[in-house]
Amino acid sequence: MGGAEDLTGGGMPAAPGSLLADLRARRDAALAKLYLDLPVRRLPGVVVRFRPVTSAELLRAVEAFGGSEDPDAQVNHDATLLAMGCVAVWTRPDGDDSSEPPANAPTFADGVAEALGITAKTGAEAVRGLYLTDGDVSAAAKRLQVWSGFTIAEADEVFQGN
């Protein structure tokens, strides 16, 4: 994840109760919760867990689809971002918003297409196979981008090459 590993202190010892130890503990606690669980619209109980997408991933998706004449370029871009950020897809029991994904939960890159019984060559194709409409794909991607720290205007600007 973008630079998070660089702040581990490089092995510098921290005395228990020190400011450095407290900072590390707070950061580690925040990193442990740094995920976004999004219910899949129109599919009750289906949830996708995402990690933040990085600026490098956003740029890779833009390079792949930006400036394309393909009418599906924007939704393919959005599906690619969702596939990149996905760490688990699972179902929650009705009304249980606190369940965690199983350790072997599939991702868009590995297992979701098989679980759906569809053929998908890429994680982005698996995203489009799970979400029922292109609008649902784009809405989820926008939420992930904003949660990752990018404004939609910034993401659109990068996508459009401005």
UniProtKB/TrEMBL annotation:
Name of the protein: Uncharacterized protein
